Amino acid sequence: MPPSVTLSALSRAELEALLVELFGEIASLKVIVAELREENARLKGLKGRPHIKPSGMEKGTAPPKPQKQEKRPVRGKVSPRVKVEEKVIGIEVPPGAVFKGHEPFLVQDLVISATATRYLRERWITPDGRTILAPLPQGTAGHFGPELRRFVLVQYHQGQSTMPRLLALLRSLGISISKRQLVRLLNENHEAFIAEAQDVLRAGLETSSWVSVDDTGARHAAKNGFCTQIGNEWFTWFRTRSSKNRMNFLDLLRAGHTD
Fold first, then answer.
1. Residue 230 phi/psi, 5° resolution?
2. Which of 28, 44, 96, 113 has the greatest count of CB atoms below 10 A from its CB?
3. Number of domains in the chain
4. Contact 227, 240 (CB under 8 A)
């Protein structure tokens, strides 16, 4: 278009053609300016324009590709931690069938039931007037057996079960027990467990080449205290303490070797 021609003298079609031409020149100039800026930044040692990756929103409307079905892991051999009882299951077969052995099928189950035993202890009177009474079986202390005591302690301490829930569980299993009796099971006659824990500490210290020690804040007997842990990959032992110092550990080591 000659420079002398004014825009008002142009027709609509000529104006549209002129705008398209100008838009093209502007776009090419922008590209040139951007390249020059990047070149200038490179020469000055500056960082160039960041390369922003696509956000992926343009793929949001596209249907997802079908994923390949992963192979299910093959179940390994089950090794129960209890003695396996074997039972033979027979079947009626037609005449002429050939026996080909047995096909094993392992089933694990859990049986929790309450039992009650009334011991009829013999009582004798000697000629000199003494009374002889047959002793109770070993491990019997009070009116609750050792397995019930062990179950109560495990559920309360290791299972973190509250006393009302534990009481309701025992009664639902058929155990006749009161709240006071449950409290006694949790708090009294633990000398055997304490002696067993001391034996674990003693055996662990005598047979281990190294042990780890840690003190952690703990709440005991409605007071703030500390729990001392001693152990390794073979054993773990705990004891609550009112303070945190090295003498506690030394006292425990001395007690483990001398008690």
1. -130, 135
2. 28
3. 3
4. yes
